[in-house]
């Protein structure tokens, strides 16, 4: 069974940093693009970033571009999100998400349990 | 960015009711539209992909339709475990965007 398990969330000060990790199992990790999706309290999900299966290509939401960096280690089946220059509006649950797609469809089919990030002084 | 607008924002329904949720995209997205269910404190779960395809393991009372800019999620006979918030999401372009959600509550 495919599974994603996040770790690394916690409390950070404004301007501070955190690093999230996501351990993948139950599927061939390197075959799939991955994303991070966050959800602020009481809000809908917001796509944050994506990375190709090889790790050679990344994309970011404008709200995090230049502050967050997504990477992966396919030898360890692990995804990362480095969060720098954190702001109060980055407070959210951060989900690691597997992307599945073909020529005619594209969806987030597996979600982790989420890592809580709180930015507060 | 492609904006996704759901209606209604919330609804009250009884077990056994037929429930319909709509989602409108700000531009044509073909059939690159997915639906997710989220229960309180849990991660979203994929229900429908490519507008009308049922994800493996999802009960057949869930169905989706539409293309272009207008889409519908239908629950044919609401069950107790279906009380949750439902989100549409477009996968036609970056950034991927979600609707604001429809909360289905018990009447």
SSE map:
The complex is a heterodimer of chains A (121) and B (107).
Chain A: E1 3-7, E2 10-12, E3 18-25, E4 34-39, E5 45-51, E6 58-60, E7 68-73, E8 78-83, E9 92-101, E10 106-111, E11 115-119
Parallel strand pairs in A: 2-11
Antiparallel strand pairs in A: 1-3, 3-8, 4-5, 4-9, 5-6, 7-8, 9-10, 9-11
Chain B: E1 4-7, E2 10-13, E3 19-25, E4 33-38, E5 45-49, E6 53-54, E7 62-67, E8 70-75, E9 85-90, E10 97-98, E11 102-106
Provide a short characterization of the protein structure.
The complex is a heterodimer of chains A (121) and B (107). Chain A is built from no helices and 11 strands. By secondary structure, chain A is mainly β.
3D architecture notes:
The complex is a heterodimer of chains A (121) and B (107). Chain A has 121 residues and is mainly β. Chain A has strands at 3-7, 10-12, 18-25, 34-39, 45-51, 58-60, 68-73, 78-83, 92-101, 106-111, 115-119. In chain A, strand 5 and strand 6 (58-60) form a beta hairpin. The mean pLDDT of chain A is 96. Chain B is mostly beta strands and 107 residues long. Chain B has strands at residues 4-7, 10-13, 19-25, 33-38, 45-49, 53-54, 62-67, 70-75, 85-90, 97-98, 102-106. In chain B, strand 7 (62-67) and strand 8 form a beta hairpin. The mean pLDDT of chain B is 97. At the A-B interface, strand 5 and strand 10 of A face strand 5 and strand 10 of B.
């Amino acid at each position: 069974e495919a599974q994603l398990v996040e770790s690394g969330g916690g409390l950070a000060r404004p301007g501070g940093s955190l690093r999230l990790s996501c351990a993948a199992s139950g599927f061939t990790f390197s075959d799939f693009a991955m994303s991070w999706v966050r959800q602020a309290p009481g809000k809908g999900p917001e796509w944050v970033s994506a990375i190709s299966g090889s790790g050679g290509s990344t994309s970011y939401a404008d709200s995090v571009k230049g502050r967050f960096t997504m990477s992966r280690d396919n030898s360890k089946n692990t995804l990362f999100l480095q969060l720098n220059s954190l702001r109060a509006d980055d407070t959210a649950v951060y989900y690691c998400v597997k992307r599945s797609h073909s020529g005619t469809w594209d969806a987030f089919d597996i979600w982790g349990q989420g890592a809580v990030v709180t930015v507060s002084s | 960015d492609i904006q996704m607008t759901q209606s209604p924002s919330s609804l009250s329904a009884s077990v056994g009711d037929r429930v319909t949720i709509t989602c409108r995209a700000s531009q044509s997205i073909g059939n690159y539209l997915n639906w997710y269910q989220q229960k309180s404190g849990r991660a979203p779960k994929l229900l429908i992909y490519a507008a009308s395809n049922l994800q493996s393991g999802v009960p057949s009372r869930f169905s989706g339709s539409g293309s272009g800019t207008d889409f519908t999620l239908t629950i044919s006979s609401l069950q107790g475990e279906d009380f949750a918030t439902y989100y549409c999401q477009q996968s036609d372009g970056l950034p991927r965007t979600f609707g604001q959600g429809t909360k289905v509550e018990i009447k």
